[in-house]
Amino acid sequence: LPETARDVPLLQIDVTDDSALKALACSTKVVANFAGTPYLDKGLPVVAACVEQGICYVDITGEPPFMKASADRYDAKARDSGALIVHACGYDSVPSDLGAMLAANALRQRYDIGCDKIRLFVGKSAGGISGGTLHTVMHLMEHGDGADASSRSTYSLDPPGSQGGPDTGDFGEGGMLPYWNDEEKKWSAPFMMAPINARVVRRSNALSDYAYGERMSYGEAVELPGPFAGYSMVAALALGLGLLMMPLSRWLLKKTILPAPGQGPSRKTRDTGFFHIRSVASNGDFRAIA
After folding, report:
1. Closest to 75 in 3D by CA, of 160, 171, 199
2. I need a surface site. Which of 10, 176, 220, 236 has the fewest CB within 10 A?
């Protein structure tokens, strides 16, 4: 912890202890929950305690089934108690959510029209991945996420009564394969975080009464220098996913290579990390970029 936080008291809370969670919620105004791996089986009691006490809650989850369960169970109660519940406040999905809003607002301010499409493109980036994220993926592979078919749809996080939209996938025009983007004049490939980010952006559009566009399509991709880089990236992702899906290789990776929950990129990697992202809102020939 930085020097300014050394005197902050540390409280150890068992999330299965309702009375302890209530006491915690009564002692503060905001709970920032970083304890997932996964959130699906640990986060809901924390959300419930915050909602009951009318305090605010934020986390860094990237688990759509958890976000849906949280909204389904506690949205109405949170409105009554005044609690603000904000999920996905990390790299998933703040850049995507803000980028879509800024691009859509720019298009409307400039041309007085809504979007029929927003595409996010990830450029040069440097950083690392946390052990918690990897172990969440592996935990869900081993135990499942309990989601039904409706929870897996591209509009699964939209609030009840929403109208949905045109998207059947999350990666834009290219789907799961690299493709030449004629509008951007660049090669693109699937962005692995799109299935999380896209649902968050669609939910934000629905919650804002479709301020971005009533039939807005959203997708995300990685920009690459050429087709070889694209197919290499897709092959590497497929290989990594395949190794994680097989019990024996998953066990070996856990024991030898992968960081444990609570571990992650070094301080140097975090301090020097960066990402370049462009969100492009369009309607016909009209475009705005954020």
Report:
1. 160
2. 10
> Distance (Å, rounded) from C-alpha 113 to C-alpha 201?
19
Burial class (CB in 10 A: 0-12, 13-18, 19+), 266: exposed
3-state class (DSSP) for residue 230: helix
Say what the pLDDT of residue 180 is. Answer: 93
Strands 274-283 and 117-126: antiparallel
d(CA 154, CA 167): 7
Residue 126 DSSP SS3: strand
Average pLDDT estimate for 123-149: 82
By CB atoms closer than 10 A (0-12, 13-18, 19+), residue 79 is exposed
Q: Is the dihedral of CA 222, 227, 233, 238 positive or negative?
A: positive
Q: How many CB atoms lie within 10 A of CB 69?
A: 20
Question: Among residues of the chain, what percentage have pLDDT more than 70?
Answer: 98
Position 36 scores a pLDDT of 77
Q: What tens digit of pLDDT does each residue of 65-115 get?
A: 999 999 999 999 999 999 999 999 999 999 999 999 999 999 999 999 999
Which tokens is 219 given? 């997708």
One DSSP character per residue, 23-55 reads: HHHHT-SEEEE---SSSTTTHHHHHHHHHHHT-
pLDDT digits (tens, 9 = 90+) for 37-56: 789 888 999 999 999 999 99
Contacts (Cβ under 8 Å, ≥6 apart) of 162: 155, 206
The residues facing 275 across adjacent strands are 125
Q: How far is CA 73 from CA 69, 76, 108, 140, 276, in A?
A: 6, 8, 34, 21, 36
